[in-house]
């Protein structure tokens, strides 16, 4: 099968192509730089030069593939407070690729997130609100193409999808703040939880979904979740222990000033289950747990 992957050189995308190539798939990956193109070549992937805002490029690549996996997202804009810019770019990319697939019966797998869902399971929805809920608009846009002859579905990643190659900014950011402030913090009682997943089993969800997209009930998402919920206070206490600094509560009102772009996440709960995903795909997630991964971070 010919598979086109956006974000193919990123954390999740590169693991997806690592799993696809040995299975005999012909993989094409979007590469926005020479370095990304060389990385993809080393993985046995044919680079497609461009980025996910190059709509004609990605539409053409999607139309020529048997299946498309969309992992690209403007994380840089998110970190600088331009979250809605990233959302609008993502919307345009999804529209361009799915419009090119209308009536084809081909598979299109979009990447969403757990944050902003109104429940823990795969049938939960995302209200059309500002913040994390706004990404739900693009999940709904994706599934709207089911009625247009596209086998479209969403994979929701947990707040922290982690791997050995790169420190996750939601965790490394907290470490940097704790070092600068002299203590590790959490918001209010720190009871909000974040689900997580090692990147290897997370990528397996996408790979399995290519062949099993027909068994996913209409309107349901797939949850690439291994750990259902790690308390944000537990994360702060782990960081504090590693740094040898105190651990303190930060009020919700003070969170923005203290945590910067991380405040919205730390004030939100991102717990989720994946029992239905495991049942539908025959997926049995195993791997490194979040606090185990944090042992390897720089402190």
TrEMBL record:
<protein>
    <recommendedName>
        <fullName>NAD-dependent epimerase/dehydratase domain-containing protein</fullName>
    </recommendedName>
</protein>
<dbReference type="InterPro" id="IPR036291">
    <property type="entry name" value="NAD(P)-bd_dom_sf"/>
</dbReference>
<dbReference type="InterPro" id="IPR001509">
    <property type="entry name" value="Epimerase_deHydtase"/>
</dbReference>
<dbReference type="GO" id="GO:0005737">
    <property type="term" value="C:cytoplasm"/>
</dbReference>
<dbReference type="GO" id="GO:0004029">
    <property type="term" value="F:aldehyde dehydrogenase (NAD+) activity"/>
</dbReference>
<feature type="domain" description="NAD-dependent epimerase/dehydratase">
    <location>
        <begin position="3"/>
        <end position="217"/>
    </location>
</feature>
<dbReference type="Pfam" id="PF01370">
    <property type="entry name" value="Epimerase"/>
</dbReference>
<dbReference type="InterPro" id="IPR051783">
    <property type="entry name" value="NAD(P)-dependent_oxidoreduct"/>
</dbReference>
């Amino acid at each position: 099968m010919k598979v086109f992957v956006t974000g193919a050189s990123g954390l999740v995308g590169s693991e997806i192509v690592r799993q696809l190539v040995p299975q005999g798939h012909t993989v094409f990956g979007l590469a926005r730089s020479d370095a990304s193109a060389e990385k993809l070549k080393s993985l046995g992937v044919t680079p497609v030069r461009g980025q996910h805002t190059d709509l004609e490029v990605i539409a053409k690549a999607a139309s020529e593939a048997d299946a498309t996996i969309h992992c690209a997202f403007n994380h840089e804009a998110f970190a600088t407070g331009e979250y809605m810019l990233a959302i609008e770019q993502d919307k345009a990319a999804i529209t361009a690729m799915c419009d090119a697939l209308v009536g084809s019966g081909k598979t299109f797998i979009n990447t969403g997130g757990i944050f902003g869902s109104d429940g823990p399971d795969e049938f939960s929805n995302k209200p059309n609100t500002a913040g994390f809920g706004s990404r739900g608009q693009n999940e709904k846009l994706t599934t709207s193409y089911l009625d247009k002859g596209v086998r479209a579905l969403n994979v929701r990643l947990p707040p922290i999808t982690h791997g050995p190659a790169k420190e996750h900014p939601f965790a490394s950011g907290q470490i940097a703040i704790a070092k600068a402030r002299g203590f590790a913090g959490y918001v209010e009682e720190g009871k909000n939880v974040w689900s997580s997943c090692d990147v290897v089993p997370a990528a397996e969800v996408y790979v399995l979904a290519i062949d099993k997209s027909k068994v996913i009930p209409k309107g349901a998402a797939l949850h690439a979740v291994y750990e259902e919920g790690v308390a944000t206070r537990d994360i702060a206490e782990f960081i504090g222990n590693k740094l040898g600094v105190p651990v303190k509560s930060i009020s919700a009102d003070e969170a923005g000033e203290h945590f910067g772009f991380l405040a919205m996440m730390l004030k939100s709960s991102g717990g989720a289950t994946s029992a239905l995903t495991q049942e539908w795909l025959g997926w049995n997630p195993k791997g490194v747990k979040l606090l185990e991964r944090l042992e390897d971070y720089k402190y």
